[in-house]
Design a protein that fits this description.
single chain; alpha+beta; 5-stranded antiparallel sheet; 2 helices
Amino acid sequence: MKKSAKAFSLLEMIFAIVIIGIIASVALPKLFNTKNNALVATLKQDIVTVTSAVQSAYLLNNSLEKISDAVVVNGSIWQIEDQKITYNDKENECVTIELKEKTLEVNINEDVSTICKKLFDTGIVDVSYELN
């Protein structure tokens, strides 16, 4: 009597690889999309936080020389200057929040990347706030 080998046949192996490939082709784009959605949510919350903090600081002091005096944001995501906070995506300015005399201007360039387009689609648009 002959012993039978306990192993997968070549056909079973190919079938398993095809199924794994199909699952991966569906799951991986969703995984990457989730990461982008998380970044968009973080950026949106940061924009709201910066605008409300700057408005509050201006209301309390009747002036504001630097944005960094009113708010602290994640330096790994945002570039902070005296009068301007910028989010760059792919070396281009995606979101800028700029303090000008008595206004705070939020500008978004939705043509820069997917992240910027998603921000625009969630309702973040160019807006100017009077700081009186």
